[in-house]
Amino acid sequence: MGEDLLKARVAQLENYIMKKCLWQFHSRAWDREKQNEGILTKTMQILCGEPVEKESPADRCYWVDAVCLADAYKSKFDWISSLNTNEIKRVMQGLKERIDFVTISGSLNEELTVQQY
């Protein structure tokens, strides 16, 4: 998969999250970091048919969002079913990097860094 195709696919998945997922709106940067890692890693594991950790309450919460996201991705983006495991992991890593940028490092929301939270 070339870089242009990777970017296009990441953009489609990002667009879905930005329009349909409320979990992206935590008010603290560290919450966003944990949720992005938890949800997107578990989504990748589901899409790859790998085991998903569900031991802690946070794991179960992220898992529920990941199940919904993986189901939506499979139903809305036919190309996902044509990818092998390595390609899925590459797309999901690109998506995580993009979501981290959009919701944390590139965000203009100054509340994310307020120390009193």
UniProtKB/TrEMBL annotation:
UniProt keyword Lipid metabolism, yes or no: no
Cofactor entry: iron-sulfur cluster
UniProt cross-references to InterPro entries, sorted A to Z: Nase_Fe-Fe_dsu, V/Nase_d_su
GO molecular function, one term: iron ion binding
EC main group: oxidoreductase
Keywords carried by this UniProt record: ATP-binding, Iron, Iron-sulfur, Metal-binding, Nitrogen fixation, Nucleotide-binding, Oxidoreductase
Enzymatic reactions: N2 + 8 reduced [2Fe-2S]-[ferredoxin] + 16 ATP + 16 H2O = H2 + 8 oxidized [2Fe-2S]-[ferredoxin] + 2 NH4(+) + 16 ADP + 16 phosphate + 6 H(+)
Taxonomy, superkingdom: Bacteria
EC number(s) recorded for this UniProt protein: 1.18.6.1
Signal peptide: none
Role noted for this protein: The key enzymatic reactions in nitrogen fixation are catalyzed by the nitrogenase complex, which has 2 components: the iron protein (component 2) and a component 1 which is either a molybdenum-iron protein, a vanadium-iron, or an iron-iron protein.
Oligomeric and partner information: Hexamer of two alpha, two beta, and two delta chains.
Protein name: Nitrogenase iron-iron protein delta chain
